[in-house]
C-alpha cells in the first residue's frame, strides 16, 4: 500500500482551515529568508501559499546573502517582541558565515514553529506536551497514525541522526504515548551490520540524505518504510536534466513492503502541514482566550 502524503496532508490542512476560522485572533507566521537560493525561494513560497489558503497571515522578510549575523539576530528580536506575530521560521540553509544553531536558539521558544530551539528539543526529550516538534518528524508520525500503522511495541529503525529528522523522530516514537512506545534503533554512517539491523525492523525511517541508499536486501517482507530523503539525480530524459528520488530504492523495495511512502508526494507535503499546525497552536497559546 502506498502512503499518500498529499492526501493525508490535505486532510490535516482541511481540519486546520476549520479551526482557524473559529479563532478570534488570526494566526500570523513570519518567514525570514537570507539570500536567493532557488530551493529556499520555492520552499518559502509554498509555505506562504499554504498559509494564505488556510486564512493564516504570513510575512516574508528577505535579507541579502552578505547580511551579518548580528543584523539577523536583531530582526529576530523584533519579531520575538511583536505580539501580532505568533510563529517565526528562519529558512535554512543560511550562509556559511552565520551560525545556524545560534539563530535557531534566538527564536523565542513560544514562536519556534520549526521546533529547532534548544528549549523545545529539551521539552521533547522530557516528553513535555508544550514542546513544538520539528515539522518533518511530526509529519512522519502523523503519516503512520493516519495510515493505521501500529507503533506501540514495534521495532523502528531510524537511518540518520540529524537534529532536523533523525533525533527528534526517535524521541517521538520512543516516548510514553499512544503514538509512541516503540523500541527505536538510531542508525547512522558508523553503524555496523546495518542491513542485518534493518531486516529486524517493523518500521524503517530513511533520513540519511543518500539517493536509493536503502536497498531490497535491507528490508524484510511486510515492513513499513517511510522515506524522508529528497535527492537530485541526473536524468537526461527530463527537461530539467534531473529528477527527485528518495533515500530508498523504491522500485525494488516497494514490492516487499506492507506500506511505503513515495518520493515526491510522501513526507514532503506533511512538513508544510505540520508547520501550519504548529503556527495555529502557537497562536492559541499566545491568545488563550481564543
Describe this structure in words.
This protein has helices spanning 5-22, 38-54, 69-81, 100-106, 118-125, 135-146, 166-174, 194-198, 250-253, 268-286; strands spanning 28-34, 57-63, 87-90, 155-159, 183-187, 203-206, 224-227, 231-234, 242-245, 259-260. With 290 residues, the protein is an alpha/beta fold. The protein has a 5-stranded parallel sheet with strand order 5-4-6-7-10. Helix 6 (135-146) packs across helix 7 (166-174).
What is this structure's SSE topology?
Elements (H helix, E strand, L loop, with lengths): L4 H18 L5 E7 L3 H17 L2 E7 L5 H13 L5 E4 L9 H7 L11 H8 L9 H12 L8 E5 L6 H9 L8 E5 L6 H5 L4 E4 L17 E4 L3 E4 L7 E4 L4 H4 L5 E2 L7 H19 L4
Parallel strand pairs: 1-2, 1-3, 4-5, 4-6, 6-7, 7-10
Antiparallel strand pairs: 8-9
Helix pairs in contact: 1-10, 2-10, 6-7, 6-10
